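Archive entry. Fields below.
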Amino acid sequence: MSFSASEIKNKAKRGEIYEKQRIAKGKAKRQRRQELKKEEQDNPELREARLRENVPKTQENTREFDEAVIGEADEEVAQDEEEDEFASYFNGQAPKVLITTTPNAGKKTTSFVKELVSVVPNLEYVKRGKKFELQQIIEFCKRREYTDLVVVTEDHKEPTHVTLIHLPEGPTAHFRLTRITGGKEISGHARATSHFPELILNQFSTRLGHTVGRMFASLFPQVPEFQGRQVVTFHNQRDFIFFRRHRYVFRNSKRVDLQEIGPRFTLRLRWLQKGLYDPVNGEYEWAYKADLETSRRRVFL
Amino acid sequence: MNNDGIVWEVLNNQFCSFKVKTDLGNLCRHPYNLTGRCNRKECPLANSRYATVRETNGRMYLCLKTAERAHMPAKQWEKIELPRNYAQAVAIIEENMQYWPNWMINVCKQRLTKITQYLIRMRKLKLKNKHTLVPIKKKLERREKSREIRAEAAARLDQSIEKELLERLRSKAYGDQPLNVNEEVWREILEGDAVEAESDVTTEDELEEENEYEMGENGKELMHAFVSDDSDNEDDGSGGDMEDLLDISDISSAEDDDESVEEDVSDDELESDNDSSSSSSDEDRPTKSKRSADSHPRQKPSKRSKKHGPRVEIEYETEAPTRDNMLTNW
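PREDICTED_STRUCTURE:
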C-alpha cells in the first residue's frame, strides 16, 4: 500500500520520512549521473548528442519573432546604413565629442563625467552654465564642428540619464543610467592608458539596435591602438546595454584573460528622436511606453 | 445722465463690487482702474473723463472713456491700439490725451512702460525651453532593477567578451603582425592554422570560415562588428549550466545542490577537453548565429582558403617536432 508522506499526521515522523526521501532521491540522482558519466567517457558522441539536444530554454532563444531583426548580409539595411547620419563617420571623419551636464551638477555627476572622459578619446568636458539652453548649445557645437554631444542629467545630485546627440543632423537618444561603478571601486582594477580602445558591440540585432550601436561606435576613433590592449564593450541583453572596459591579454590560442579597468554602468533606451534634440516638435522614432512591455520575450534593440 | 458725484456717493458710501478693503486703505479691482487704488479721483466708474492703458493677448491699447456713449457700457471705452515701438506709443498717448489732466497722462505712460517691459520678458521666456519635471517611477525602477541583474547574469559579459576577442584573434582581424599578441601565442595560432589546413578537418575549417571577418585595408572594419546573440547556447559546457544540462529527466534538483558541486567540477574538466569538438558541433545546428550582423556591411566570408596563398609560404614548416606535438594534442 502506498501512501504519501504528507498524509502522516505526526510532525516528527513526517519530517523524518521526508528527510529519508530526500536523501534517497539525491543518492539516485548521483548514481544516475555517475553512470552517465562513465558511459559518456567511453564514447564521447553520446555526450555531444546530449548536449546538443539539451539546450535550456532562455529568454534569448525563445524570443518573439520580430520583423525588425536584421538578418546576415541584409543588402537593404546595408544600403540604408551607407546613407544614414553616421555615414560620414564610417567614411573616415574623425569624431570630436563634447560632454556636459545639467547646470549645477553635483560631485557624483562630475566624477562620472570624468570617468567617461578617460574612456572616450577626443571627449571634451565643458562645464554647463545656466545661461544657455540645450538647443543653443547644440548650435554652438555644430558651429565648432563637433560630431557628438553628450549630456548627463542628474536628479537629487545623482546622474540618472544620458542624452546622446549626434551632430549635425541627429539622431538623439535618451538613456536611463543605472548602476554606475567607478573604476576605483572595482577591486583589482587595471589602470587606463591613453590608447584608443577597441570596441565590441554585442547583440544589437534590430534596426533600432543598429542605430544605437552605430551611435556608440561613432563616439570612438575608427582605428584602435591595439598595443594598448584595451577593449570597450557595449553589450545589449534584453534591452539593457551594459558598458564595460577591460584590458586583455592572450595567454594562448584558446585563452584570453581580462582585467577590468572600469567604469561600469548600464544604459536603457528611453527614446530615440529622429533629428536634433527638440522637446516640443521632435519626431520620436521610438519611445518607451509601459504598453510595450507586455512580454519579456520581446526586445527592441 | 450719469452724475459722477452721485455715482461716487453710492460707490463710496453704499456698495461697490470692485472695492477691496484692506488695513492700508481701499483698493479697486476694476480692470480699467489706472492705479488700483479706490478714491474719488481714480475711480473708473465715477469719472466721465478717464483713460488707461491695457494689454490683451500681447497687444497694448489706450482706452479712453467717452462720455457720449455712457448709455452703452459695452461701447463706452474707445480703444486705440498702441504700436510696439515705445516712442511711437508715447506719441500716440500724448496726441490723444492732449488736454487731459497731467497726472492721468503720466500714469498712462507709466503703465505703458510697465506693460512693454513685461511683454518683452514674456517673449524671452517663451523662447526658452520650459523645464518639465519628469517623474522617476518607483515601481518601474524597482522592476527594472531586478530585471537588469538577471539580464546581466544572462549576458555572461566576461565570457562573451573573451569569445569575441579570441574570434578576432583567430580570424586575423588584428592584422598579420598584431601588436596586442605575444609572439609565442601568435606562432601557436599560425601553427594551428597550418595543422588545420593539412589535416583537412572540414568542420573546423567551415567554422573558421564562418567566423572569419573579411578585413578592411587597415583593420578598420572589425571594430564595429556586431556579434551573434546566442552566446548562451555556445557556452554550453562552461560551468554554471552543468546542473541543468545534466538533468535529463529530473528537473527539480534543488535539493542536493551541495552534492552536485563536486561533480560539476569534474564535469568541467571533462568538458574542457572536449571544448573544441563541442564547438564544432554547433555548426550542425541551424542556429540563429546567422543573425549576427555588422554595422558595416560585412562582406561575404573570404574565399581565400587556408590551403592557398600566404599560409603556404610561412617558415614554420621546418619546425617539425612542435607541429607533431600539436597534432597529437589536437
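CURATOR_NOTE: Chain A is about 30% helix and 25% strand.
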